[in-house]
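#lab-general

N.A. 3:47 PM
ok so I finally got the sequence cleaned up, no stray characters, all 361 residues accounted for. can someone with queue access submit it? mine expired

B.Y. 3:52 PM
send it over

N.A. 3:53 PM
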Amino acid sequence: MGISIPAVSSPDDRHHEPEGEVWVGVRIEGTESPLRAEAIRSALARAGAPFVEPTVYPDSSITAVHDQALVDWQATAHDEWVRAGLDRDPGQDRVVPYIFPHPGLLEGIDPIEPSSASARAGRYVYDTMTLIAPGTWKAARAAADVALTAAGLVESGTQATYGLCRPPGHHAARSAIGGSCYLNNSAIAAGSLAGTGRVGVLDIDAHHGNGTQSIFYEDPGVLTCSVHVDPREGWFPHFFGLAGETGRGPGEGTNRNLPLPAGTGDREWLAGVEGLLDWLLAGGAGKLVVALGLDAAAGDPEGPFEVSEAGYRSAGRLIGAAGLPTVFIQEGGYALDTLGDLVIAALEGFEEGAASATGDA
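B.Y. 4:20 PM
back already:
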């Protein structure tokens, strides 16, 4: 079976080469490599998916969900790092922070904008995993254009699109980045659709979409929900993702989290996906953004769930049967030998579910 869903993809994702991450003070290999996108592109090509090149969108489409200061800093962060000589002394060739404006440090005092390049990194990056390489901004900016192009096609009447976004984005918040995410592609896509009615964001990555939640936490126009491993079991992002986080102010009631225990398999995970879809439909979502994380799959090195390929196909069917114009945005997924097949399973499942819902099956 082939794929008819348009796949938006940019070769610029290859420019992001973090070459590892700093984990508990040690630089390790890391799993967010350019090979991820290559594996998915190859699978899409084998499935006959029509490829679409992204359109370049104005920065205003990005600053609709991210602070201008964060965007400006990312665009020049590596150049600033090199000008400061940090690539030579102490010899760190990637941007990585060492001090953070922690609330306990500030004690309510508004921090100044630090002049040191290493301290500025801590101003905008909340962990040491999210290294910035010479080509990171080019790749992140292209990923945002991929997301916006995919959303634009849906806004123009295409029933479903897939955005091959790398680096991923759902951990990036309005004013800070982390979790190997730089621009929040799912939030950017949702923000671009929000002017046409209420939008739903369904995050099925193994980890809580904390950045997307925080961006829309007070926004009544975007419903956000996430099914993920319980952060209380020691999983990133550790401090967020509980069921009691439901939105704030005008956004009260517009966020839903479903934390599940490590080891969760198809049945419980699919029940969660179905329940969140029902909640989005009941809340009046007219368009859907799916943060398509594939690290819930059994055997993924970054996730503790046991979801099968058949489980992802079933999730796709449920999403397709919901009948909403849908934008899939690639998030996590790190098992290179199965990653492409999982994308195809989810997209084929969507087409099966959509056909069944319209009687075209």
